[in-house]
Sequence to fold (314 residues):
Amino acid sequence: MHLLARSGSVFFALALAACAGTRTTSVAPREAARACPLASDVRYAFAEDPDDGPSEVRVWSIPLGHRPGQGPPSPGPTTEAELVEAGLEPLPSTLFVLGARGESCRARVEGYASELVEDGPTNVRVVAITSDCVDDRAMTWVSARPFDGCTLAPAEAVAARALGSDAALPEDPAPLPPLYADALALAPDTCEPPCTRLYAVRATSSTPSLAEVWVTDLVADPAVDPCSWRSDGIVALLAIDDGHARRVRFPELELHGVLRDAGGARVALFVDHAAWGAYELGAEGELGAGRSETTFEPNEEDGTVRSLAPYCGP
Fold:
């Protein structure tokens, strides 16, 4: 089941949000007591409905891992013993779900299930299930520790210059804002006509802020199909504080947001087509200890397309 739209289509819509700059929120000094869980305690969860999920009611499914379709455990209800046999670790019986308004909701792990994933090579996704704290969101985050005093600052569009419908070139000549261009060492004269520089920036409202920046230099040729247009680009993660930006390690996953408390941004969260990640954030926005996990094995052509050029795949 697809939980995320292909990233290329996400950024296609970002042209509607072309307000430059990065919003930050003033917070208390970093020395404030930590309220957010550690990155190692945080897990991704997605919603499944009765029609395509493992239960007769809407549930949060928490991926634990995936296995080849012919290997254990078999599709269906799964016991803790079968988890251990498959090399997976059961979760605590009680978890906390990060609510839509930042509240911490206590949830019971009601069981485990193994699902045959048809969206890729034959493989089985193993999940923990809870019907507690379920709402209309497609995904959330859970932890063995409460989220009291800890909120999600989602990555939101702050600047964009993208293709229009039918691959129409943008009429707006606005360059990539200097805050991001300088951090990436992108000079304007490196893309002059017939080259068009496209970009999309999403950033978190936190201190420090994280910004995911997509830049695609596109050479459009009206004589050929847009699928054949030449392009080159970069995708990078920037840490921004006090009006300064610097490049930090990018885990090759789409930035979802950060967990923040009174001491600032604590954990960086990432979600992609078939993977997720959570990493500790240093005081200057650098990614520290953490993990990324693949939730199922996707088709080769279903990988995230990290480009703003015309998409001509399946």
Q: What stands out?
A: Confidence is low (pLDDT under 50) at residues 1-28. The first helix runs from residue 7 to 12.
